[in-house]
Amino acid sequence: MAEELLSEIGSEEFRVDSVRAWLSRPEGEVLYARSESDLGADGADLIVILSRHSGVPGSPVITTHVSGNFGQAPYGGEPETLSTACPPFMKAFLRVVADSALKIGF
Q1: Neighbouring residues of 93: CB distance < 8 A, sequence distance ≥ 6
Q2: CB count in 10 Å sphere of residue 81
């Protein structure tokens, strides 16, 4: 979906309300980072990671969530560790992505 969104948005930089955001596609299937530096995002106010999630078979799903684990970490990351949430940005980002997703048939 990242490629289609990039095509719809028109550039790697876009706006979500008053926040400038960048769409970046890390290489590889698995992303593991312990700091902003690991992502090349030193000094970033926010970091947004696009990832594929599954819903009902055959139905695409778009969601936002804070990364981390409430309990154990069977799929990776640190147990009992959550990232800091920014609900206003998450809502605005989801709105922008959902509008773009409709245009690309997602």
Answers
A1: 16, 21, 48, 64
A2: 11
> Is 0.70 surpassed by the pTM of this model?
no
Task: Please give the chain's pLDDT, 106 residues, in tens.
Answer: 556 655 655 556 666 777 776 666 666 665 667 777 777 777 777 777 766 666 777 777 777 888 888 999 887 788 999 888 888 888 888 887 777 777 766 6
Query: Could you list the residue range(s) of the whole structural domain that residue 96 is in?
Result: 2-103
Beta strands in the chain (DSSP E): 13-16, 19-22, 68-69, 81-82
Angle between helices 87-103 and 2-9 (to 10 degrees): 90
Candidates 14, 12, 13; CA nearest to 99 is 14
Q: What's the domain count of the chain? A: 1
